[in-house]
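Example with several molecule types.
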Amino acid sequence: MTAIIETVGLGRRYGDVRAVDDVTFAVEEGSVCGLLGRNGAGKTTLLQLLTGQEFATHGEARVFGEAPLENPRVLGRTCFVKESQTYPDPVKGRHVLRAAAWSFPGWDAAYAARLARELAVPLDRRMKKLSRGQRSAIGVIVGLASRAELTLFDEPYAGLDAVARRLFYDLLVEDLAAHPRTVMMSTHLIDEASHLLDRVVVIDAGRILIDESADALRGTAVTVVGRSDDVDAFASGRDVLRRERIGGIASATVAGVDDAGRAAALAAGLELAPVSLQELVVARTGGRREEEGS
Amino acid sequence: MTAIAYPPVSRRVLNGARVHAANPWTTLGLPWVILVAVFGLTYSIWRIVAWAAGGVGELDADAFRYAGGVTWILGYMVTVSAQAMNQTFRFAMGLSQTRRDYFAGTCLYFLGASAGYALGIAVLAAAERATDGWGVHGAFFAPAFLFDVPLWQVAWFFFGLMMLTLAIGIAAGAVFVRWRATGLVTMLLTIGVLAVGGAFLLTWADAWGPVGSFFVDTSVAVLVAWTLPVTALAVGAGYALLSRATVRD
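Resulting structure tokens for the full complex:
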């Protein structure tokens, strides 16, 4: 496997604010990478750095082995769809698709037309007049039909309803199977999207907090439930993400539990429950502090 | 994964121009509509004046030779290109264009627009001359010092000045894309201070005479040629500014 995206110590500061700080990570060819984090964590800035839309103040980014800034060899193979995309005033959906057709070498016009029907987007109305969800749907069409070797989605389905979001996940899975490519996607709807993700990168306050395969991440965290004493005994010395106590019964969400750890928990009479990716990310990016404060 | 070749530079620059063509109305349509409207108003006033004077024959031959309405389109071009930059830059970035290709395409688009406008106005000036000033000895499309120069000079005049005003708009648009309203206000104030400072220097050096005679003695064609370095400077400044611009809100 080769890395499509590689960064070393990548950073973007605005004055004292470190929007992206010392980010080093890689995305393998053909994988789907989820970029997770809270609002203002630096997700959009990171994606903009990877597409040359923003200027790095520290470190470097390599995409397809080259610096992306003002680099048509990189950008010509990349499609970046962002929620905050703006359009010229009188431009309609069909103009956007036409512009995408001559911008992206891999564009599939028939597929774009099919997506427009499936997502029920009005193409003959000005982008300005569309709802947020409809604008997002057009972005989704551009992202999928461009068939770019590297596709970056920033909050691709903001404003889309649950049905349309589900449709997007299904379409993405289906199209990636037929046309494998590398996808990086930022999202807040972690559990919804988690089945798509091969890899999870969690960013908090500009820094990378988690960079692991989705399976490993899900597999290593468990919630143990049982008598308080037993739970405390098991949890002591471990990475506890969250703790709850009701009477004599307690539960603890613990990260980094291997097979031996699981066996130990079962032997201690504890029940094991899986932890969703969302719980894990929430716990790691601020949920723990709230828990301790309450 | 099939590797797809990225587009060649000609195609990329063309794409930079095409984001403007996505809606050609404000850059290529509206200015003509307003120019024709201004002409219509001017022509009506000529008719009223001629009627009040008791007929066109009662007026001096050059009575309607100094209408300035056509210069309006030149001033308007500054907003046309500035606004076009502001509208399309983020869109172009969203289409994976580099700033360089987008900027080159933008210049190409407005170069073509300048040629189109210059040609169109020259054709209208030819019609004006052929109809003896629309039947009232009027000079709207080639007024004042353009009245008796050859048509190619009329076209050259509008081509050169159109490029100048569009280039100033491109620079202003780049300032706006980069620093929004704050940048634009700062730029206008700076230009104002420089203009007043220049006027002061000319007055102090008692140099208004030579400046005036330069404009009187130099032919239209050569004067227009003098705008080219200024145009190039504005384009260069525009690129220098845009090449560091981001799509931040």
